[in-house]
Design brief:
Elements (H helix, E strand, L loop, with lengths): L1 H7 L9 E4 L2 E8 L2 E7 L5 H19 L5 H6 L1 H11 E2 L2 E2 L4 H4 L15 H12 L15 E14 L5 E15 L5 E6 L2 H8 L14 E4 L5 H7 L2 E3 L4 E10 L7 E10 L3 E10 L6 E10 L4 E8 L4 E5 L4 E10 L3 E10 L13 E8 L8 E7 L7 E15 L2
Parallel strand pairs: 6-21
Antiparallel strand pairs: 1-2, 2-3, 4-5, 6-7, 7-11, 8-10, 8-20, 9-11, 12-13, 13-18, 14-17, 14-19, 15-18, 16-17, 19-21
Length: 401
Amino acid sequence: MNFCNKIVATKEVKETPMVEIDGVTFMHTTVNDVTVVATTKTNCNVTMLIEFLYQLIILCKAFIGSEFNENQIRKNFVLIYELLDEVMDYGLPQILEPDVLKLYITTGKVAKKLDNIEKLKQITIQATGAIPWRSEGIRYRKNEIFIDIIENLNVLVSNKGNILRTDVVGQVVMKTKLTGMPECKFGINDKLFMRAASGDPRGTVSRGIDIDDIKFHQCVRLGRFDRDRSITFVPPDGVFQLMTYRITENINLPFKIMPIVQEYGKSRIEYSVKIKSIFDSSNFASNIIVKIPVPKNTATCKVFSTGIGKAKYEPDQSALLWRIKKLNGDSDYVLIGEVTLTQTKSDKQWDRPPIGLEFQVPMFTASGLRVRYLKVHEKNNYKPTKWIRYITKGGEYEVRI
């Protein structure tokens, strides 16, 4: 009750993911105004518990089939209670794989009868075995692997054009349709791996990239990765996130924003914002939104020219939104506009928030990460079809004015 009064009621749940009250440590996360909490009185692994909460939310979404919110929790209370009984025993996390739990926690009007002894043995082995994320006996007519390299680019540029901060947060998402129990080996242009593979740990590999942080799905053999940086695994069936990573060096920016903002007293502001795509001309970007801030006391906003796309003043966002459906590489366009302001009693100057940028660039990675190979070995000796796609999206992409 103290936790609800001190944290939830005061809306501090997003500011303090861990708090101690009366000798009890509360670890929590909030999704759609629902706070999921874990408690302990001992010195436990906090990172593990917070990760458990995130995985529990993902598990509930997989069973509910929709958003995790208060209404769905009320509708599926019995199901969630049953899931909680399976995923945690005596304070220790247990099975959190949706595919495994769906074998013996069923939903719907008619429950499946598990009266086959061999089937029950197979479920038990999968739940308690060395590879709980994949069941045996999977068969496909056509064996395929789909790989998505998705990167979110975060950039902060000064009003003089200097890059103050930049990093890439990426993820490798796979969709596997493979028969049997395949052994996969995944290779990227990581400098440390390329050095280890060349047999010269002190050598220089100019084509590789430096990865700062990396996190794997539980199917990856961490012992092998620690020894020789090789990524080997038996993949789950279907869609899963193989790894996430963060890179802070040698990042290629896909766009350059050059703003000129001139204030004329307290009544008028002129804008000239140039966007230049600095990736290859054979490629293109889509769903581009340039968010140009304007003062809150804006009376009218006129756009004289854009060259491409459409621009519209959005009062609720205090911004002029320049939307471009498609922009080819190695091209540039300029938006020219004017804002008139209403008179205010306050003498406070406009603080000039940064320009924001949203976009998607296919077949481009800001970090330079590339898939070098994906090898699949299975006793049936089939050769799967492999598909790969690269996407770079705008994260917190800001340019000061």
